[in-house]
Amino acid sequence: MGEDEVKYELQMPFVTCQSVGGPHEDNAYVAGWAMGSLDAKLQFGPREIQFLMLQKDNRQQLDLILMKHGYSFRILDRPVDMLEDWDEIVLIPNDVY
Question: Which of 51, 62, 64, 97 has the most neighbouring CB atoms within 10 Å?
Answer without folding.
Answer: 62
